[in-house]
Design brief:
- The protein is of the alpha/beta class.
- It has one domain: 3-Layer(aba) Sandwich (Rossmann fold), CATH 3.40.50.150.
- It contains 6 helices and 7 strands.
- α5 links the parallel β4 and β5.
């Protein structure tokens, strides 16, 4: 965790402002279950903050306290309901203490098996899980790290209690990506 925390603190300290919300999130936003939302690996919070402006109560998690400080400052300025939690996502069990969520979003981050196994347990019945990140085409096109790329069908064994509502393979301004939307049965 410490290496990741230092790396992301440095990156977030160099950045100013926010990018627009994720393109796949914008496409799927109306299909998310409104209410309590968990934003995993939120960075500087652009996606959770966007959804907070549409009535979601957001818990934004990240390894970087610098990124989370930006989230808190922006949420206070916008007067939107966002709480933050610094969390090592390789050991995500602390999330169980926050109760169930209506929706979970994970953007531009590939969860490891500990988190993947936990995600269905964190959703209410009828809850939504949105995951979108760089796919295997990004490896060839831009030298993206293979261990961080999404591959087709790799999540099916983790989400037997979820129903796949959308799968999209696409390219946008950020690169080659796969987007998934599941609903808990």
């Amino acid at each position: 965790m410490e290496t990741d925390r230092i790396k992301w603190n440095g990156r977030h300290a160099e950045r100013k402002g926010h990018h627009p919300p994720d393109s796949y999130l914008l496409k799927m936003q109306n299909r998310l279950k409104t209410g309590k939302l968990l934003d995993i690996a939120c960075g500087r919070g652009r996606n959770g903050l966007h959804l907070a402006n549409f009535g979601f109560e957001v818990l934004a998690t990240d390894v970087s306290e610098v990124g989370l400080a930006v989230v808190e400052q922006t949420a206070n300025q916008q007067k939107v309901p966002v709480k933050t939690l610094q969390l090592d996502l390789d050991n995500p069990d602390e999330l169980l203490t926050y109760g169930l969520f209506d929706s979970i979003i994970i953007l531009n981050f590939k969860p490891l098996s500990a988190l993947l196994n936990l995600l269905p347990k964190l959703l209410v019945p009828g809850g939504s899980l949105l995951l979108c990140s760089f796919n295997d085409l990004q490896i060839k096109a831009f030298g993206f790290a293979p261990e961080k790329a999404l591959f087709p069908q790799e999540f099916s064994r983790y989400f037997e209690t979820l129903t796949l509502k959308d799968y999209s393979r696409f390219q946008d301004d950020s690169g080659h990506r796969d987007g998934y939307l599941w609903e808990k049965k």
